[in-house]
Amino acid sequence: MCDILGDTKDLTPEMDCVYSAIKTWDRGMAGQCEFHMCNKGEKCYFDGENQKCEPAFCVDSPYAINAVSAERFGIYRNVGAAVKFKCKHGYTLKGRPYSECQSTGQWENMFSCAMIEKCSNGWNLAYNKCFLFVYEKVVWQDAVTKCKEYGGHLSKVENELEDLWLISQITESVWIGLNDIENDGQWRWISDSSGPNYTNWLPAEPNGGPDENCANYCKDFCSKTFYGWNDTRCKMLLGYVCERHSD
Questions:
Q1: Which of 12, 85, 148, 177 could form a disulfide with 154 if both were Cys (CB 3.0 to 4.6 A apart)?
Q2: SS3 content of the chain, % helix, strand, coil (to 5)
Q3: Residue 187 · residue 176 · CB < 8 Å
Q4: Distance CA 222, CA 173 (A)
Q5: Closest by CA position to 163, among listed 187, 129, 186, 195
Q6: Please, how many CA atoms are within 13 Å of residue 174, restricted to the half-sphere of its CB?
Q7: How far apart are CA 222 and CA 213, in angstroms?
Q8: What are the tens digits of pLDDT across the range 71-104?
Q9: What are the strands, taking DSSP E only, across 9-141?
């Protein structure tokens, strides 16, 4: 006879095992406890002539945030039993990877799953990139150099979602990696010399001709109520956004 505690779905076949639903058994097999008043998850026993109940198994299944069961043969719910877990992709385990059924009839997790840090301190993860917002005022070329020193490059904005996210994060005007320094009117990203597939120029921008060759997010000094791209003199002193691939 195989004792199965819990769901009978997705069972792994075992030789010489027979499954029998306990609800079909004769109640008389419970002896003195045939007419017990215990709740689900409790077992009946007698202390002298007094019938008593105590937890025997955990009624619910164990649960842990950002984790899944690693058991092959289902879940054992009896008191003292432990269910093994593993963390979901992108999370790392802290503690012992078990959830144990306590004598109270409740599960207690011995672990937690924490998100794997993909970006260094100070960098922000979005769209599989790490972004660093720096509000030190520098000229555009110094921003390019500093981003390289940080292990990245001046930001390349590739699509509308990324653009909207950056706008939601910035608190003042900042440099991005777009420029037409080499050929006026031919805008290129400093990171790979590619042309932009997506742009978010403010109305009437870019309009600086040969005098304004570097792009930035602009709002206040462009007399706008919203951020967008603006071309301005590369010697302007602004903050900047760096980016690099996530770890």
A1: 177
A2: 15, 35, 50
A3: no
A4: 10
A5: 129
A6: 26
A7: 16
A8: 877 788 899 999 999 999 878 899 999 999 999 9
A9: 42-47, 50-55, 67-69, 82-87, 91-101, 107-115, 124-126, 129-138
